[in-house]
Every structure is written in structure tokens, then in C-alpha cells.
Amino acid sequence: MGTGNRGLSWRVPVLVTLVVGVISALLTHRLMAGGTFPPAVPTLALVLLGGVGLLVLWFGWAVRGYLRGRKANLDPMRAARTLALAQAAALTGAALVGLYAGNALGLLPDWDLTISERLLWSYLGGTLAGGYLVVCGLLSQHWCRIPPRENGGAGEAA
Fold first, then answer.
1. How far apart are CA 79 and CA 67, in angstroms?
2. Taking 50 as the threshold, does the pLDDT of residue 156 lie above it?
3. What residue intervals traverse the membrane (predicted)?
4. In this structure, what is the dihedral angle of CA atoms 119, 123, 129, 132, given to the nearest 10 degrees?
5. Is the dihedral of CA 146, 149, 153, 157 positive or negative?
6. Cα torsion through 137, 141, 142, 144, rounded to 10
7. From CA 43, how far away is CA 31, in angstroms rounded?
8. Are residues 63 and 79 in contact, defined by beta-carbon separation less than 8 angstroms?
């Protein structure tokens, strides 16, 4: 489902975002109907998401350097793990975007309350951090792409 030879398609994170967003909005609306507010996004979570995004980019940059001939050696397992990390980061970020955007949508009917305004700002930060993680993951995956061979000779299976 989107992870063939071309890697994780941008459509998969969009689908994850939409599914999680709808579920999150419905659950938040249900919580609010019962008089309970959903939790805010912790500031530490935003900082950690930023750090994970930087880490994904750093690992992807090393693979990119190797593929472009600027790095002498790279363990193939590290390259494969970097690709898996990049794809996992993109999917996790997409789920977080859906979660926090869905929470914000569920709060919109009560946006005039002071606590709702604070929570909406919190969810905006979480949505942006999740989007950043999606971009970092997809970019790192792109950097891990091995260019196609120019000569279709001995190395390819019949």
C-alpha cells in the first residue's frame, strides 16, 4: 500500500491524517458533550517532535551523502533503517496532525470559552509539529532513494 519501489507515497500520510482526524473530532465532540475537555499538547512533546525531525533529517542526509559519493562508506543496514525511520516518522507525524487537528475541530463549537482558546493554540502547535515530522520523514525518504541504473545489463534479473 504505497511502499513499493517508489517508497511511501504522500497519499498514505494524507489518508492517515484524514482517518485519525475524523475519529479524533468525533471523540472530542463526544467528550465535550459529557463536560470533559481533552488534554492540551505538552510543550515537551513539541520540543521532542522537533528533535526527532532533526534526527530523521540527519540520518537521511548521511545516506544522501553516501549516494552522491561524498561519504566513503555506509553500512547497508543503517541505510535500510534510516529509510524505515523516515517512513515511520512520516506516518507518525500524519497521525499526530490528524489527532490534533481533529481535537481542534471538535472544540470549535465551544471556541468562545477561555480554556478552548488555550487548547486551540496548543493543538495548532501540535498540528504544525506533526506536519514538520511528515515533511522530515518524506524528505529523508527521498534522500534514501537509489537512482536507477543506467545500464540494464548483468545486475538485473531476467
1. 10
2. no
3. 12-32, 44-67, 79-100, 120-139
4. -150
5. positive
6. 140
7. 23
8. yes
